[in-house]
Design brief:
The chain is an alpha/beta fold and about 150 residues long. It contains five helices and five strands. The protein has a single domain, classed as 3-Layer(aba) Sandwich (Rossmann fold). A five-stranded parallel β-sheet has the order 2-1-3-4-5, sandwiched between helices. Helix 2 runs parallel beside helix 5. It is globular. The two termini are about 20 Å apart.
Length: about 150
Amino acid sequence: MKLLVMHGPNLNLLGMREPEHYGQARLQDIDAALNALGQELGVDVESFQSNHEGELVERIQQAISGGIAGIVINPAAYTHTSVALRDALLATAIPFVEVHLSNVHSREEFRHRSLLSDCAVAVVCGFGPDSYTLALRGLASHLQQGRQT
């Protein structure tokens, strides 16, 4: 089984960007941990990061022909603004988990609204880098058990 982990805008700056919200872990550290977890779970993990909405949409669309069974996505700022990401995820019908490093509900009011969460299998937030590993474990289990969203 192949799972895609997607990182949205500014996540390439992890480790130096607002550590009070996002911690000290770098994106490559998170991806390495996810690859190791994927091996433990018996799934292939591919990671993709872009600061550009259109590139994220295109990668979601490519997931159909790429044999991707599920997506873990941290849409970052696009969580609150991107109808295009929502539409791409709905169009592909690939199960996905929305993930955030920080607890978006304890932050600014505009971060409380997600355009994706009502379509997601689950949402994991507030556990720092562990948000990703919890999401990957949950999505793999969900898919392996054949649950319906």
